[in-house]
Amino acid sequence: MSQDLRAVLRDMLLIRRFEEKLDDLFSSGVIKGTSHLYAGQEAVATGVCAILRPDDMMTSTHRGHGHFLAKGGSPSALMAELWGKATGPSKGRGGSQHVADYSIGFLGSNGITAGGLPIATGAALAAKMKQTGQVVVAFFGEGGANQGTFHEAINMAAVWKLPVLFVCENNQYAMSTRYDEIFATPTIAARAAGYGIAGEVVDGTDFFSVCEAIERGATRARNGEGPSLIEMLVYRYYGHSKSDKCEYRTREEEAEWRAKDCIGKLQTHMGLSNEEYRTILEDVDAEVEAAVEFARESSEPEIEDLESALYA
Amino acid sequence: MPELYYSHAIREAMAEEMRRDPRVFLLGEDIAGYGGAFKVTQGLAEEFGTERVRNTPISENTIVGVGVGAAVCGMRPIVDIMFQDFIALAMDQLVNHAAKFYYMYGNQAPVPLVVRTPAGGGRNYGPTHSQSLEAWLIHVPGLKVVAPAFAADAKGLLKSAIRDDNPVVFVESKLLYGVRGEIPEGDYTIPLGEAKVVREGDAVTLIAYSRMTIESLKAAQILSSRGIEAEVVDLRTLSPLDIDTVAASVEKTGRAIVVCEDCLTGGISAEVMSRVVEECFDFLQAPVKRVAALDTPLPCSDVLERAALPDANKIVAAVEASFAAYP
Ligand SMILES: Cc1ncc(C[n+]2csc(CCOP(=O)(O)OP(=O)(O)O)c2C)c(N)n1
Prior knowledge:
heterodimer; A: Rossmann fold; five-stranded parallel beta sheet; two-stranded antiparallel sheet; globular; B: alpha/beta; Rossmann fold; seven-stranded mixed beta sheet; five-stranded mixed beta sheet; binds thiamine diphosphate
C-alpha cells in the first residue's frame, strides 16, 4: 500500500502543480480563455479513480482538469488542449471545459452545469445492455444539484438500477452563491431517499474516506443494486474562474479549509519526510514543465478542418 | 407494390433495423405496451422486449441525454419525443450535447442518435401540441433534420437516419400518419440530403416538405385546371438542404413559392427563400413568395387553426397573385 500511496500523492500533486502552472499561464495571457481550477478537491478525483477499474467511465464538469488527470489522461495532451493546439484530445476545439478522452473512459468535461448526468446515465445504460460490468461516475457540483437533470437522471438510473455513482463535489459555493442560499436542507445526500437509492456525506478532503464511500457505491452498482448519491464536502482554493476575487467569502474560512488540505493530510498519514516529498514534487514539476513545452511546441489546428469536422 | 400507412412504414423501418442491428433500441414515454401516443411503436415491445423498447419517465431532456450517452458508447438509440413542442424541454441535450460532442471532443466518438417527433397542426390539439419547430433545429450545426411527406420516403429515410453516424431529428407529421402510400419491396434506403421533384411543371416551383408537400400537390392540381403547371419539389431533408435540386427547378420555371407549415418569421421558409434568392436571382421572373403559418401559437378552434395554417387554397392564391403582379 505504501507504494500505492506514493502514486496517489504524486497524482494529487500533479493536479495541484499542473493547475498552479496553468494559473500563471492564464494570468500572463499566454493561454487565452478561461478555466476553473480544481485545487483543494484532489482527494475526490484521486480517491474515485483509485477504486474505479481502468475501463470504468466518468463524465466531468467545467472544473474537470483533476478528473481528467486522475483518470489517467495525459498532462501534455490536456495542456495542449487548454492552449488551443491541434494535439489536444479535442484538437483545440474544446478548451478547458470540453475535453474528452474516450480511450480512457473519460466521456468529457462539460460547460453546461449538470449536463453530464444524463450522459453518464446513458453510458451506464449502454454498459448494462452490453453487459460489460462497467460503472460510470457522474461528477457535478452542489450548484449542479439544482438542475432538472439531477432529478431526471438520478430517477431514471434508480428506476433502471443502472451502475452510476452520482458524485457531488460540494465545495460550498456555486460561483458566488453559498450553499445555504440555494438549499433548504443540511445535506444533498439526503435527497437520495427520495429516489430510493443509497446516499452518504463524505469528508472529501480525506482520501481514505473517499475511497471507502466509492468502494461501497461501486460494489452496489456492480451487484445490480443501482446508483448511489455520494456528497463530498470540499473547498475550492481559488476563485470560481480566472477573474474571481472571492469577495463573497472570508479569508478565515479559506484558512480553515486550507488547514484540512488533502495533500497535507495524506503526506502526514504516510509519514513522508520533507526530503521524500520534495523528490516527488520535483518529479511532478518536471512532468508539468514537459507538458508546457509539448503544448508550446504543438501546432495550431488546421483551419481546413473547421467545417469539415462537423459530421461523422 | 404493397401499400402501408405512413405510421406503419415508420414502424417497419424501426423493426427491420432492430432485426438487422442489435445496437438499435428505442427510448421514450409510453412507447412499449401502449405503442406511443400515435401507436407508431405498437407491437415492437412484443417482438423486441422492453429492454430494447424502453419506457421512460417523463423527462425529455434526460431521455435525449441518455440517448447521447448510450450512442457515444456504441449503441444506436432511437428516442421518441411524443410531440415536437416538447423538444423545448430537451433543447439543452440536443443543442449542447448531441450536436456538439463529435465536433467539440475532437471527432473521437460519433453520436448515432435518432430523435423521432411528430409535428404540425390540423388536429385541434391546441398551442402546446401542434407547433412545428424544425427551424430551431436546422439552426444548430451538427444536427441533421429530416421531414418526409410519403410513406415510402418515411421508411427509407428513417432507415438511413438510423444507419447515419450523426444525430438526426426525424420530424413526422401527425396528419400524415393515417395516409397510405406505396412501399417498395425489400430492404431499401433513401439517402439523407436529397430533395425530389414529385410533380413536374414549367410555370412555377412549389418548394415544400412534410404535409405541405401534399397540400402543394393538391394546389398544383387546381392550378393545372386553370392552365398553370406547377412543379413541386419535396425537400425531404431540411438539413443539409439540397439546394441544387431546388435551384435546378427554379431556374427552369423562373418562379418560386416556398410552402411551409411552420410560422413565417425565422421559419424554414426564410432559409429556403434566402438560398433561392442567392442561387437563382438571375432566373427569377417574380419575387419569391412564402406561404407559411401565421406568427401565432396554433389555436385549438378548428376555424382559427385553419385560418392560421397554410393549405392548398392559400398556395393557389399566392401563385395567382404572383402571376397577376408579374405576368
Ligand atoms: C446551464 C448553465 N448555467 C450556468 C452556468 C454558469 N456557471 C458555470 S459554473 C457555475 C457554478 C457551478 O457551481 P457548482 O455546480 O457548485 O460547481 P463548482 O463551480 O462549485 O465546482 C455557473 C453558474 C453554466 N455553465 N451552465
